[in-house]
Amino acid sequence: MIQLKNYINGELVAPASGSYLDNDQPATGEVFSQIPDSNEEDVKNAVDAAEQAFKTWSVTSKNERARVLNKIADLIDENAEELARAESQDNGKPLKLAQKVDIPRARDNFRFFATGIMHFASESHAMENTAVNYTLRKPLGTVGCISPWNLPLYLFTWKIAPALAAGNCVVAKPSEVTPVTAFKLSELCIQAGLPKGVLNIVHGLGASAGSAIVNHPKIKAVSFTGGTQTGAAIAAAAAPKFKKLSLELGGKNPNIIFADCDFDEALKTSVMSSFANQGQICLCGSRIFIERPIYEEFKEAFIAKVNKLKVSYPNDPEANLGAVVSKSHKEKVLSYIDLAREEGGKILTGGTEVVLEGEYKNGYYIRPTVIEGLDYTCRTNQEEIFGPVVTLTPFDTEEEVLKMANSTDYGLAATVWTQNLKRAHRVARDLESGIIWINCWLLRDLRTPFGGMKSSGVGREGGFEALKFFTEPKNVCITY
Ligand code: NDP
Description:
Blueprint (H helix, E strand, L loop, with lengths): L1 E2 L2 E3 L2 E3 L6 E6 L4 E7 L3 H18 L4 H17 L1 H12 L3 H25 L4 E4 L3 E9 L2 E5 L5 H14 L3 E5 L6 H13 L6 E3 L4 H10 L3 E7 L2 H11 L5 E5 L4 E5 L5 H13 L9 E7 L3 H13 L19 H16 L3 E4 L3 E2 L10 E2 L2 E4 L6 H4 L6 E7 L2 H8 L4 E2 L1 E5 L3 H10 L4 E4 L14 E2 L2 E2 L4 H7 L1 E9 L1
Parallel strand pairs: 1-5, 8-9, 8-11, 9-10, 11-12, 13-14, 13-21, 14-19, 18-19, 21-22
Antiparallel strand pairs: 2-3, 4-5, 6-7, 7-25, 12-24, 15-18, 16-17, 20-23
Helix pairs in contact: 1-7, 2-4, 2-6, 3-4, 4-5, 9-10
The site of NADPH dihydro-nicotinamide-adenine-dinucleotide phosphate has 33 residues, from helix 7 and helix 8.
């Protein structure tokens, strides 16, 4: 049994309350670690340490900050296999996914912002003969970073790295459901020589530790990724205190397949965009719209491919899908499949849980599920399920599919498959989503603005957007 510790003021410490929460392993349903049940006192200690460290870190040269962040990236690389195993054990995702995606991306986040800060410049606005303005950007102070369970270390570092690169000190909380790699990161930060107090990691529940971070008066900004309801609660708490907020929230993304698409490419990628990470990626395309002339052909081919996916324990090298993250999440996803049936949907494949054998018999496994026959306005097609469940809907015109695609409260990502260049641009322009992929999915350039519109969030992460978020601009106007 591993017992995790908080990382406060450069040290690994027990929670002030002395109490711990059980953390189970989705593959088996067994408890395998215990995590600090932190409270306001732990957060206060973390903020005090961060405030003290800020005096030095904020004036440490960019070169030196970049050097330490690059050192953390090196250590992630050196420990990649151990981190991938920990991530897969904690989250239930196939080990090979953690090896190929999660951990390399966590490393890249540090490298990207370590170098990004070296290129970060600010604006200047000259006023002909009178004056020149220039923008000074300074770090904010102590900031809060709160992340979800689906891509644990990947999303945790996506926030922490730019905050630190820009000269802030951080109090961060990973999801209580998947805290292990964040704990391992704290060990690596100590090894890398990150000055004490610059990064503090407080484990525990959202309602106690998370909310204490959001409400602490010294926390100047909160960067949050998670569910839309939690985002709304955080916004309500932070608004009267005038904190800066970056909110990356839920999605219900359309995947639009026109009849003139590259059929094989659209098919192969749609299987991935539906079921990668058991459908638990905020960018997964859970509503698949298929132009009527190819509807039946695409449907048959899609189901044939989905039926070949193997749901298995995460360490199985053949596993395409592992376990979903928790028992309660499994129940939530299955309840949505029941809802789809009640709403008149036809389950084309999947629709049930999978019970594996032996030590995995109590794990949380669900068959990849494909549903058709639902109206685009029904709850199954409007609410985020965040599991291995997709719906298929035929369409006849571009206008009709745009109406259906834009009909949800969400607006995170959309995928479009077409060989018609003009249509690709037109549809991209008219889709209400922050991220549009044309003839691809999840192709990421870390310099691009990342985030959603409508109930999918406020603000953008990535590249200079993140560095702008984590700095306070000040205009200086000087006359000639
Ligand atoms: P939650 O909103 O439940 O939790 C996210 C984080 O917030 C967790 O660390 C959680 O702690 C914490 N938290 C919960 N309540 C509060 C509170 N009142 N104050 C402060 N912190 C709080 O999301 P999930 O972890 O369930 O993640 C899944 C969601 O994340 C999905 O909706 C998904 O779409 C979204 N997501 C969005 C992405 C994007 O980029 N837009 C990317 C990935 C996921 P605890 O674990 O203890 O509840």
